[in-house]
Write a structure and sequence with these properties.
Helices cover 46% and strands 18% of the residues. Strand 1 and strand 2 form a beta hairpin. It has a 5-stranded mixed beta sheet. By secondary structure, the chain is of the alpha/beta class. The radius of gyration is 14 Å and the shape is globular. Helix 7 packs across helix 8. The mean pLDDT is 97.
Length: 146
């Protein structure tokens, strides 16, 4: 398995262990992880700390050209908010662990020139299916469903 997708899965597991939603992400440039994160909406009481946003936050403030040389790995298809951040910082490639449990804004990303690669990793699917089944209200809140 790709070591960067594995790092994102490890982050997802850390989020679940903390009582949160099991979605993880890493920002990678030239084979080095610049930032890693996981969904911390529950843990931090935050409306915006999805896995991708946490990874970007943990990478810290970077010059604009750095983002343009990165790949963002995420265990789940990115929502509109996270896709907006990808587009804002012109991250050219996103590797997605799975999009079976949630289809994010992949078409939007592709339409704006982002390379999108979907793996359909069974560990990612299993994590989300189990979480959604056990916590449907929390999941719906996370994706903005009443």
């Amino acid at each position: 398995m790709d070591p960067f997708l594995q790092a994102a899965i490890t982050e997802a597991g850390a989020g679940l262990a903390e009582g949160g939603i099991p979605i993880g992400s890493v920002l990678v440039r030239q084979g080095i992880i610049l930032g890693r994160g996981h969904n911390r909406r529950m843990q931090q009481g935050s409306p915006i700390l999805h896995g991708e946003m946490d990874a970007l936050q943990n990478a810290g403030r970077l010059p604009a050209h750095i983002y343009r040389e990165c790949t963002l790995y995420t265990t789940l298809s990115p929502c509109p908010m996270c896709s907006g951040a990808i587009l804002l910082y012109k991250i050219p490639k996103v590797v997605i662990g799975e999009n079976l449990t949630f289809m994010g804004e992949e078409a939007w990303l592709k339409s704006r020139g982002v390379e999108v690669e979907v793996i359909q990793n069974e560990a990612c699917v299993r994590l989300m299916r189990r979480f959604i089944e056990a916590n449907p209200q929390v999941w719906n809140e996370d994706i903005g469903v009443p």
